[in-house]
Write a structure and sequence with these properties.
single chain, alpha+beta, two-stranded parallel sheet, two-stranded antiparallel sheet, 4 strands, WH-like_DNA-bd_sf, WH_DNA-bd_sf
Amino acid sequence: MRDVIYLDRMEQAETLLKPQRVEVLRQLAAPRSCTEVAEVLDQTPQRVHYHVKQLVKAGLATQVAERKVRGVQEGLYQAVARSYWLSPRLVGRIGSRDELALGHLVDLAEQVQADVAALDRDTELPSVGVSGEIRVRPEDRQQFLAELQTTLQDLFTRYGGAEGDAFRIALACYPKGDNR
């Protein structure tokens, strides 16, 4: 089972965005039959089977085994990932964005999301996540931005050689809710 599946096709999103299917998918965190899921969700096996088939068709679940129960073959299904990320591109860009607009942060977040989803492997990958909060007075914003650019440029110069593992750096600064 993968950690993350990045959904950028409308068909996948439409399949997933039905409350009953989300509940079925949650039950498929471990391999289960449609009958087992139906019992937990208090649904008919036929109804669950329909939803499971739609999830399999969209690539969100898969049949992992088969067993014989009372002379009938029964499939065992499992979700293909622990998390499902929907691409903002499913809606599409509305209007233009400049680098100082919040929409630019949405584009940046989507790029990070797509990159992380593409990296998802069965093995642990080296990565770094840093988050923090700073407070900058309006009159100090330009100085802050200049210092930030200088610091990043220094890091890019120092570690930007052709040797070693390549890492992408994404930095986002945005207002923190109503507590500005």
